Amino acid sequence: MFKYKLALFGLASALTFAGCSKRPASDVITTSNSTPEVKKVTSVGVVNAQPQTAEIAAGTSGEAVVRLVIQKGYHVNANPPTYPYLIATELEIKPGDGVTVGKVTYPPPITGTFAFAEKPLAVYEGTTEIKAELKADKTASKGNRSVRATLRIQACDDQVCYPPGTVDLQIPVTIK
Question: pTM for this structure?
Fold first, then answer.
């Protein structure tokens, strides 16, 4: 009987103290295994790539645009980068479905000074655009299609660079 009363007292005490120390649910973010969630920064998570529709008449050239929206407080390395060991922002477009790819043009960089670099670096911040020449074959059928592309980026903040990442894209193309 004594063991039963002692166990009941222990349970009642535990519930009382647990109720007093409870924090509002909005103050605590937990994962399924009840550990605090830590926001992990990734290059792909910091940059939003937005392909714009390219309109091209059959047998002519046009321009594809991929808009990069880089979160405030971060930057990506320009193309070409300041140092050869830095990973440049790079757009690679695959030809296909009557569309071939010409020159890719990168925006002019801005220059920034960062704690981890000896001299200022050429970077992109905020919103910027990468452009590429596309050509529609003379025999390309009219209508909508898309060409595959990959965007390689390495995001950094003012202290550190994060592992590079690759974003798979579909660039919409309308052949007129």
Answer: 0.76
